[in-house]
Amino acid sequence: xxxxxxxxxxxxxxxxxxxxxxxxxxxxxxxxxxxxxxxxxxxxxxxxxxxxxxxxxxxxxxxxxxxxxxxxxxxxxxxxxxxxxxxxxxxxxxxxxxxxxxxxxxxxxxxxxxxxxxxxxxxxxxxxxxxxxxxxxxxxxxxxxxxxxxxxxxxxxxxxxxxxxxxxxxxxxxxxxxxxxxxxxxxxxxxxxxxxxxxxxxxxxxxxxxxxxxxxxxxxxxxxxxxxxxxxxxxxxxxxxxxxxxxxxxxxxxxxxxxxxxxxxxxxxxxxxxxxxxxxxxxxxxxxxxx
Length: 291
Description:
The structure is a single chain. This protein is mainly alpha-helical. 74% of the residues lie in helices and 0% in strands. It is built from 11 helices and no strands. The protein has helices spanning 6-26, 29-46, 48-51, 83-118, 120-134, 138-149, 153-180, 183-190, 195-231, 243-250, 259-286. The longest helix has 37 residues, at 195-231. It starts with 5 loop residues before the first helix and ends in a 5-residue tail after the last helix.
């Protein structure tokens, strides 16, 4: 019977480590809860037309500010629109904005971070820009950008991308700087490998794990920031059923229609909670030594 090679032993060890990580992940009740919440959020967003009992834009002043009942499970708003339907469609807006922002920040942050970590001259300029953006509180920067660009879903996405891409860029840059100094990278340079090949073929795989964890948190931050902007009246324009818009509408009738505040707030909180728990789970799975 031939002895196993070192490479085969390493593959078996990696396989066992993955099994152990998955086992730990699935036996963490909070992580499983986060996964279930996120899956439910996406299913609600995808099947909103099927799940919604009413048209979220349909006005019926005769049903204005009706309390939760069998006809309207979560009640109605100031225009007689079904609140449950509007919250369901609000999930679609939140996942769309959060998902696009997560993808765009990932792409922009990776590009800037990789080249900043590899080229010191680019690092000096790009990181000073990122430091300047991070010096401003996120919500204030988002409000300022929306004020310049104008309200609307596209402008909200652009604004939040500008707000959050420095997080990805800084993490990517820190890992890239460490990898750049490794012996195998020096060997690649000596063998004539191009900088592009080294950056995207050898440095990129090392930064994926921490970046994916941060992306999940950015998704959650984008959801709550979009809701905050809409609540302040500078986000998704009415009558779109954003959770922030619904809460903003409910604040004027909070004493007679508490459900306009409570239910969309619960939806927002659960979504952010689920995404954060998922991020914690990804961190434990991708970097089991982090805890």
